[in-house]
Structure prediction request, 687 residues.
Amino acid sequence: MSRAPSRLAAVLLASLLPATLARAQGGGGPEPDIVVTPTRTPEPAQTIGSAFTVIPREEIEKASARDVGDLFRRVPGVTLTQSGGPGHVQTVRIRGGDVRHTLVMIDGIRVNDPTSTGREFDFSTLVLADVERIEVLRGPQSALYGSDAMGGVVNIITKRGKGPPTGFLSVEGGRYGTKEVRGGISGGDERVDYSFGFAGYDTAGFSTFGYRIPRLRFAVPWGLEPDSARRFGVNGRVGINVMDGLRVELGGSTSFNRAQFDGFFDPLFSPYPDTPSRAESWLSNVYGRVIADTGPLRSTATVYANRTDRTSRNVSFGDFGVFCGNAFFPAAGVATCRQDTFFIGDRKGVEYQGDLKLGPFGLFTFGAKAEQEQADSFSQILLPEPAPRLRDIAAEQTTRSAFAQHQITLIDRLHLTLGGRIDDVRGVAQFETWRTTAAYDLRETGTKLRASAGTGAKAPSLFQLHSPDFGTATLQPEHNFGVDAGIDQLFFDDRVKLSGTLFWNRYRNLIEFRSPDFSVFPVVPIGCRPNQVFGCFFNVARARTSGAELAAEVSVVPRFLRLRVAYTAMEAVDLATHMKLARRPGQEGRFGLVITPMAGLSIEPSVVYVGHRYDRPFDPTLPNPIQSFENGKLQPYARFDLYAEYRLNPNFSIYARGENLTNARYEEVQNFGTAGRAVYAGMRANW
Prediction:
């Protein structure tokens, strides 16, 4: 077993702890940042015992509307995977958990897709139109947020307007026929505040399959066709202060994504991967919130609803016949299959949260929630022989939850939290989770020591339970236990900010898919129903993830040169098979500089590094050549990017973005293409 994470952590902590002695006594820093997600209440960052990262508005504005997922490369402990170019599926893993173990919220409202395989969230459906910040919380958080939060939480917080009306507009264009625009307006006074934004892009793109992958250059000898993508969205938020201590908020967002994609490649069953397939998705979210602050008790009541509507047109070709649905259609020559699928996922709920101030005894947070999820899916074969539309899934589940958390500060330095939650998923199971954190604040040396421990749980998805082809109605919730410990350090007059964390997680009762073994008879896997000849879901898997995270920001030369680093070393192992978990790199990081050679000019070069990993689980006992073929070994890569912006005046700036300027060839998912050298330029106006 690799010891790289532990060695890295030992060096990291050994370098950080003595630095506390070098910092000047009593050096006051800036006012503490306020974060919400780690405790469900606004708290100074210095009091938080959990590991978290905030992506601020200025970083979001510099990112492209095409690839919002690239923002997560700036966060240690987070792994981004994209199946192709812009508009294609983007998923996030936190600390080696599965993509379904990441809870995604917009303004505190859960938006994970009820119809996806594991209720995972696809970031390609998201438009960052007018976002104030993104808070990423790492480690098991089910005690705060319930199911789906086993690995961590991503909370996207939209802007709250204030002051006189202001607006912004940016336009950009570049390689692959890309055009994008973003804009918004906001403002407010003591009575009413508002904020509205929009964003969209259009790109001719490149082939999802095989683009810039040398070994696949002969798979489609007549050449690869580009796969275009288009996305747009709007969001808004209005707040009304009805009277002192009473506020009403209304908010919502909607976004649309359309992308062409290619099919699966197999020399025998699917020899034509470059197909004219297309996927579309709508994500709509709306909420209303009433906040009543009556002295020691602050009450928040929220009602919400969201819908994910997805459509997929799947086209495939085959020699002398084609598999379509669960049947094989023979033909004299090349046969075509077109199967359309439709997914509609609805979520609605109501939640109450009370925050009771106890004076010297801290803050007690409690609440309850009722949420209903519904999933409907349909499929229809149009070629080679038209067939009627079939309803595959029509299911729902209701979850009722109650939670409580106590925060207290002792001796004005030690900040403690302890909380728990009960989730009752009707007809499935009831599970309890807990969480505790501690943060010790040494202001004199700019040091925060922190630690957290907790459990996570996730109810099976509606697809895993009710899919007629693969579902298992008796599935039970997944569980995990995780701990972490770390140090946040400021020194050299706050010019150096370092954060190091060790983490360890153990998963049990994981839901996995049992595939058939066609070399034995009968073909139906053990434990599956007779009609499930292609496999089914079951609870057996166990896994462990462990590693170290490092984040650093160093003012090398004040007002001229800054260094930013986010780095993760991790080991993720299936405890039942001892195989390395798929798509979890052993090392990854982003290393960037911010150079300001003159007033108004900012130049930001960066390198994204991702170590080797496997597209499917890897067994270290087999020879490497077999592993590389059967498990899709993906080679490490380093990608060089460059961003430059020149502010002509306080209200107008021009910028350019260079991506993968070294033209590195790499894959994030086996056989799926990634962008080559590309340059984009734009302008941004504020008023």
